[in-house]
Specification:
By secondary structure, the chain is mainly α. Helices cover about 65% and strands about 0% of the residues. It has nine helices and no strands. Helix 4 packs parallel to helix 7 (about 120-140). The longest helix is centred in the C-terminal third of the chain and has 21 residues, at about 120-140.
Length: about 190
């Protein structure tokens, strides 16, 4: 099947070849980690991405859409380079990786913002609804059991986002082993 040519101008890139959209997403994560959801400004994200503030509106509808897109982008980057799906236990490991720490912080901020801002809650609900069917297909049992497995898995991942905040003596490796077992129990067909 022939590849359709891209229309319009090519995406702008920086000296390292990183597209503006990716720079904005990475800058949004960094700004949210530093300032929290409420403290992030469009101007701060633009400055970090080395673009003008109006450039954000070329790619996103505003701060809310940008931050939710940054969360989705962070999760999408967990996939292997070949595009294959990770098993539930491997998603747990990826979530706990030190390189995912800033993204864990963003996830917490987004979920908390969703409690205060209906527009964020709606975007988060859409995001969850987009990902739930693929996980539901991977779970075993009745439809209700599958729904419970997916909801429990999403709650486990959200809980793992708090790992860096917990001042408890468990090691990352111990938490990862236990969480991987829980994930494997939720999706036994992936064993």
């Amino acid at each position: 099947m022939p590849v359709e040519a891209r229309r319009g101008r090519p995406p702008k890139v920086d000296d390292a070849g990183v597209a503006t959209r990716q720079r904005l997403l990475a800058a949004a994560i960094a700004a949210c980690v530093e300032h929290g959801y409420e403290g992030v400004t469009v101007n701060d994200v633009a400055a970090r991405a080395e673009v003008s503030a109006p450039a954000i509106y070329h790619h996103f509808g505003g701060k809310d859409e940008l931050l939710v897109a940054a969360g989705r982008w962070a999760l999408d980057r967990l996939r292997p380079e070949d595009g294959a799906s990770l098993s539930a236990p491997d998603v747990v490991s990826a979530f706990l990786a030190p390189s995912f720490a800033d993204s864990r912080c963003l996830m917490i901020e987004l979920h908390l913002a969703g409690r205060r801002h209906p527009e964020i809650a709606a975007m988060m609900a859409e995001w969850h609804a987009d990902h739930a069917p693929s996980w539901r297909r991977r779970a075993a049992g009745t439809p209700a059991q599958r729904d419970a497995a997916v909801t429990t898995f999403f709650a486990l991942l959200l809980g793992l986002c708090q790992f860096d905040s917990l001042a408890l003596p468990a090691t990352r490796a111990a938490v990862e082993r236990r969480s991987r077992r829980i994930a494997a129990d939720l999706f036994p067909t992936e064993r």
